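Example 3.2
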Amino acid sequence: MSDLPTLPVTFRPGHTRAILLTAGVVIFVVISGVAMLLEQLGPGERLSFVVTGALIFWVLAQLARVKVVADESGVTVVNIAGKRRLAWAEILRVNLRPGDPWVFLDLSDGTSLPALGIQPGLAKRRAIADARALRALAEAHAAPPDGRDQG
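Structure, written as C-alpha cells:
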C-alpha cells in the first residue's frame, strides 16, 4: 500500500472553492459599489446594501469551507453547517457512485455521512482519485474484522 497519501491529507474541491470565494468578493464589491454610487440613498440604505453584500459573501464562504481531513487517528469532515470527527474504525465504506453529488461515508452506527469535501462537480477525475485515496486510507486503518460485528 505504498500508494497511500501521506498523512495528514486534506481533500477539498479546489475549483469550486476558488469560484465561490471569487464570486463572493465580486458580489460584495459590486453591491457595495452600487450603494456608494447611488446618490439618492441615505446612510441606512447604503449600510443595508453593504450588509447584504457581506451576508452573501458569508454564505458563499460557508459553502467554500467544506473539506475532509484525514490523519493518523481518523477523519474530520467539515460540511456547510458543521464539523464531525470520526475514528477510522467508525468508517465502514467510502462511496462515490455515478450521479452522487459528493462522497458518502457509511458509518458503523448504521448511518451515512455526506462528505462534501470530495465532490465531482467541476473536477470529476480529481474527486474520483480523492475518493479512492480516502477509501484506501479507510481500508488500511480498518479495525480487524472480528471487532466490526459486535453489535
